[in-house]
Write a structure and sequence with these properties.
It is built from eight helices and six strands; from the N terminus they run H-H-H-H-H-H-E-E-H-E-H-E-E-E. It is of the alpha+beta class.
Length: 228
Amino acid sequence: MLLIKEMMTEDKPRERLIEHGVETLSNYELLAILLHTGTKSQSVIELSKQVLHRFDQLKELEKVSYQEWVMMPGIGMAKACTLLAAVELTKRILQNREEKVAQIQTASDIYHHLKHQLSHLEQEHFYTIYLDMKNQIIATKRLYIGTLNQSNIHPREVFKHAVKLAAASVIFAHNHPSGDSSPSLADYRATEQLEQSAKIMGVAVIDHIVMGKNECYSIKENRKYHFI
């Protein structure tokens, strides 16, 4: 297999990165650095182009599972792990950046805070956002995966973190994989159950946001927000 170091100097992504800066590299060159090697029949550059050709948009890479990666020709266990780690690290960087929002004031703030985690998922994920007295984010925790209903959302799990973090208030959020953010009856019932538990714990529930594709719905405000 052809290693990056065996390529012509002008074709080496690492050397181009060092000499001209990482921002000058194309998508396939960045991917080639991660993959490191090609196969017996193709260079790492050709392999990178082949991988990217399989996807209509670059953001689709975050949807690819380990099993899907290793089924692709030229992508074994090591390459699959490297790619998954790179995608996850990128998501965490974006999340960390968005957690520095000074204050949460609207449903729109929550949408932008969580869109990178929730926009591509094919199952419902339930998150709780813990806030201090100034509505600043203390922590964001995923507490449940699966269709939302009263029986599978456990208030003790939600509010044990609130106590531990000394949170003054919480915001609930979950996604609808269909893309339609309109709440279901189960969403309303789960919200009511959690609000009752919050009163006992002395924690304020600011809102429950349902995330769709380029939109979200505020259950407390009864308003749908749309984003381009």
